[in-house]
């Protein structure tokens, strides 16, 4: 309760300091890509629709914190995997991560008309992973990890910091934002084994995000 009171007071102070104050829900379309730092393992994009809420404080220059429920990940395709006569090729892993995404943006209205404005913005955000789901194309639960070890839950970080940049358009009470999100860190890092070799692999993450918000006040 004390934390909620502090948050409400902080928002009230910020709205007074920055002038205008808006709040509302938003829906998001995301196209995410997590790729490994090896040419052996290929990957595909994963797209999804998500939702969240945003707060905007300020006028010409503004701050915008958000909280979004998001899904991200990739489908990883391994090279030929031979386990002493048992061929698992093609072997794929569908990695799906449910995350709470918390961005903080600093923006500037470069065109400010009565009914329409155009904005540019940038900032940082964090992804907090609340659920990890890995679906393998073949059952490898009984395979010795010295022979074959693909991505596991323990290889996926629980939190990753990101940066983002984007442009936005406001029309009446609606706000449309398009942003690019890149990761400071590596969401997946692990020692994978395939074809009689152990590989210490990392990853990089990127995402395009389109959000449509409704300023209810």
N to C succession of SSEs:
HEEEEEEEEEEE
Task: Tell me the β content.
Answer: over 45%
Q: Classify the helix fraction into a percent range.
A: under 10%
**Alpha-beta content class:** mainly beta
| CATH architecture descriptor text | Beta Barrel
Question: From the alpha-carbon coordinates, what is the Rg to the nearest angstrom?
Answer: 21 Å
Structure description:
The chain has one domain: Beta Barrel (Porin). The protein is mainly beta and 217 residues long. The two termini are 24 Å apart. The longest helix is centred in the first third of the chain and has 17 residues. The chain has an 8-stranded antiparallel beta barrel. Strands 9-10 form a two-stranded antiparallel ribbon.
Quick take:
By secondary structure, the protein is mostly beta strands. The chain has one domain: Porin (Beta Barrel).
Topology of helices and strands:
Elements: H1 2-18, E1 21-36, E2 42-44, E3 46-58, E4 61-77, E5 92-112, E6 116-136, E7 159-171, E8 174-183, E9 190-194, E10 197-201, E11 203-214
Which descriptors apply to this entry?
217 residues, mainly beta, Porin, eight-stranded antiparallel β-barrel, 1 helix, 63% strand
């Amino acid at each position: 309760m004390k934390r909620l009171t502090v948050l409400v007071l902080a928002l009230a102070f910020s709205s007074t300091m920055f002038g205008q104050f808006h709040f509302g829900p938003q829906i998001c379309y995301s196209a995410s890509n997590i790729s490994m730092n090896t040419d052996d393992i290929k990957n595909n994009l994963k797209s999804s629709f998500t939702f969240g809420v945003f707060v905007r404080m300020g006028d010409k220059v503004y701050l915008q914190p958000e909280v979004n429920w998001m899904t991200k990940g990739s489908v990883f395709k391994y090279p030929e995997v031979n386990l002493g006569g048992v061929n698992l090729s093609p072997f794929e892993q569908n990695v799906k991560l449910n995350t709470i995404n918390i961005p903080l943006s600093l923006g500037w209205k470069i065109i400010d008309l009565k009914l329409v404005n155009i904005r540019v913005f940038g900032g940082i955000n964090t992804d907090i992973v609340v659920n990890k789901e890995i679906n393998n194309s073949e059952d490898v639960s009984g395979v010795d990890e010295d022979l074959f070890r693909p991505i596991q839950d323990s290889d996926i970080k629980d939190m990753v910091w990101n940066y983002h940049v984007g442009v936005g358009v406001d029309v009446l009470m609606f706000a449309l934002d398009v942003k690019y999100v890149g990761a400071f860190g590596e969401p997946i890092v692990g020692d994978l084994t395939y074809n009689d070799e152990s590989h210490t692999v990392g990853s990089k993450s990127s995402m395009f995000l389109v959000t449509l918000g409704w300023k209810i006040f």
